[in-house]
Design a protein that fits this description.
By secondary structure, the protein is an alpha+beta fold. A three-stranded antiparallel beta sheet has the order 3-7-8. The termini are far apart.
Length: 289
């Protein structure tokens, strides 16, 4: 009979490192959570989210904000539907590591919500960086392997069983929310990969143009930096999002006006001026006829 025991080797990062063996003895109620944790680790999502949320970590905080947010996501993946369902993870510290208390989780969500777009931009940037890494690992199976990416926009009804913020009657005569989602199409043999979402009240329209434009922009933005790197040259085509951003986007320069012409003067002896110029020439060229 095959052996089947979970054994903790050591703690690495925010989650314990677990290996799988097997004598069939039950001891962990959410054993499949190990697969989710290892996926998080392999993708680098734990380190990316942790780094992105560093500005929201207090000096003497015990729990990392990135780990707290990931714990909420894992709880949802395991069937949870509210913040308190992180209790499922808290019951298995050997698999999920230390899990924050319910008040700590709630405080973090309140703080991030109060930060509005600043927090959303940080989380979106981390997700985009991780998505780029995962697509690179996927190689020929990546959604962009063929040179194009298909994005589907679709509204989803989320039922609310009690009065919640922005909950309203829906077109199906239910009560809740009507978020608009953006999914990258993985082709006939795969599923959709969620890349963007716009939270909306339940009575939001299904064909609201401004909402569709917003979600389309969010969906496209996750891949714009990578596209820019590819057009800049061989080195940046293989670089991670953070490197492309540091080398080609967050660049100090001087903008001069002469007659009716604007000229951007790049820093002297800047090592990436050739890549920057190539990218600019490519995107600034007249469209092909």
């Amino acid at each position: 009979m095959e052996r089947s025991t979970l054994q903790v080797k050591k703690r690495i990062g925010s989650y314990p490192r677990v290996r799988i063996e097997g004598d069939g003895r039950a001891g962990v109620s959410q054993a499949g959570g190990v697969l989710l944790v290892e996926t998080v680790r392999k993708a680098g999502l734990n380190t990316a989210i942790s780094a992105a949320l560093t500005p929201w970590r207090k000096a003497r905080a015990v729990h990392d904000p990135g780990k707290i947010l990931l714990d909420v996501a894992l709880a949802v993946a395991l069937g949870g539907d509210c913040l308190a369902d992180v209790e499922v993870l808290r019951a298995e510290p050997a698999v999920f590591g230390p899990v924050a208390s319910d008040p700590t989780v709630s405080r973090l969500i309140d703080v991030l919500a109060a930060s509005g777009e600043k927090a959303l931009r940080a989380i979106r940037a981390a997700r985009a960086e991780v998505r780029q890494h995962v697509w690179r690992l996927a190689g020929r199976e990546a959604p962009d392997a063929g040179g194009t990416v298909t994005v589907d926009l679709d509204g989803v009804l989320v039922i609310a069983h009690s009065d919640k913020e922005d909950a309203a009657p829906t077109w199906k005569r239910t009560y809740g929310h009507h978020p608009l989602m953006g999914f990258v199409d993985h082709g006939p043999g795969g599923t959709g990969e969620p890349v963007a979402a716009l939270l909306r009240p339940g009575n939001a329209g299904s064909n609201t143009a401004v909402d569709h434009i917003t979600v389309a922009q969010l969906a496209l933005a996750h891949n714009l930096t990578r596209a820019a790197g590819t057009l800049a040259g061989t080195f940046h085509a293989r670089a991670v999002t953070a490197t492309i951003r540091d080398h080609l986007i967050n660049v100090p320069a001087r903008l001069a006006r002469s007659a009716r012409r604007l000229t951007l003067h790049l820093p002297e002896r800047w090592p990436w001026s050739e890549d920057f110029t190539q990218l600019f020439s490519t995107v600034h060229a007249p469209p092909a006829r």
